[in-house]
């Protein structure tokens, strides 16, 4: 099959003879129609993710069509348009039993060994990881479900931890990429009416502004948010500077949800967290319930027009990575499309 | 009046002509009968707390008898035996309105300017900060309410954040002083049946063991707790080493409650917190509801015999500080008693 393979630091190679994935029990093959590029793909491409050594097919934000039978011969999903939840959990540990499959100790994700990713014609995936694409939704839009579910999960987690409802609360989001924008859209959809979003890239700021649901600012030149003012911070960047900003902005008893993970050293104000009872929580991907809820919210219009996408052919994926790393793309999401 | 005054780094001076406190609106004078020494008093005594510069009367764990009228002439509490909640909040901000007076931005605490502390014959305190001492409880025991309420609050906060009930959960407490022991007793009283407590001082380990409610160990020589095994960590020490231990011990989706604050640099594993959705929260003192609930639990026997006290005369307070700092005291709490 055709695939865009990460072959070494800052090197992506488009090939036409990649090995087909092999079906395990309960799995089907999905022919990929649209697959987004995630910040974690860029991170791996730069050689910064020890969990993703080359050679590897990256990509985990896929939508496509189920092809053929599962490995027991059942064709119940054959031809179905689906969004892929790329996180494969064991299904029977205490985390899975309590609906937190994303905390499963045996979890795997496509684009990390032993599973190849979705920058390819085909991906093998358990049937229980598939969500049908609703009537009328394009496959490109459907591929946004994964990053949006990440924002939706973070906001849902934060909303459970703050003292008062979102509609009474002030929220600050770091990052105007797909997850940051999705967090802002999820905050708005879940009732929040005072949303601030910090983004350093001017092109991205314009894209977020056009969604019309939050106050967008450049934290480097315009420290818009006062100290101790924010009920809920959703940090979709996750570096020392955003953690310092989060620590400063959060109010006593407030909540910081840490989603991004550019680095993991410094930036937290342990003294303030202790004396002011701040809650800091990590947020990793989504549960299957988040995935279903996200697709429904995308479908019913709660998350707006979802028009912040730029499409590229999979074969030109290397150029897209280069443009993204050099800040030349205004769209919050670049979606690659395998040639048919 | 008589008072033990912190007069400079590592210097406590017992004097007999300290100025009497002045009543503000709604306040009464309490003649102190018993007052515990807290780790934060030791911290200030060593010159490590910039919020508590000398000269200052330290001490905030007081119990005593209300003397006379409030400053409007009402004698409704005159002669009442009371425990003092030393945290004075504004009563009308959003934190106070939602029952989190401990997060009030205008909070004051006795033993920090402008309020003198309770290592003295008298303290001025708002009437709403007083809890009656139940029938049959000694004043020395009553003075434990403050450190126990700190542990009770931390455990109550942790219990709300963990996924499953305490009775299903494993808990780890760092520190076998009064707050650590109180946290373990509160965990037990609230239903937890798998409690581990780490303490480096052998004398203190023996005291905690005799309470009979938890497995006590020395974390320096006996790493009893496995990685990723604990649902709820209550860190009543709060230094780099206990934060590293907490980060390692906590399981995916688990909770760390940070109560102690020996230092505030390093020790948190931000990468694990993010990828494993660990919740880290600060815990500061207690609410008025925690204070009432604690006195009730002390009274009804839910917290055991409360016999881990050593009494000393207030005039010999300097020696008690010295013994505590040199680890020569097995009791989890030293209580000073002003001479009558």
TrEMBL record, chains A, B:
Keyword Iron-sulfur appears in the UniProt entry: no
Annotated InterPro entries: ADH-like_C (IPR013149), ADH-like_N (IPR013154), ER (IPR020843), GroES-like_sf (IPR011032), NAD(P)-bd_dom_sf (IPR036291), Zn_alcohol_dh (IPR050129)
Transmembrane region(s): none
Pfam family, one: ADH_zinc_N
Matching SMART domains: PKS_ER
Single GO molecular function: oxidoreductase activity
Protein name per UniProt: Galactitol-1-phosphate 5-dehydrogenase
The organism of origin for this protein: Enterovibrio norvegicus FF-454
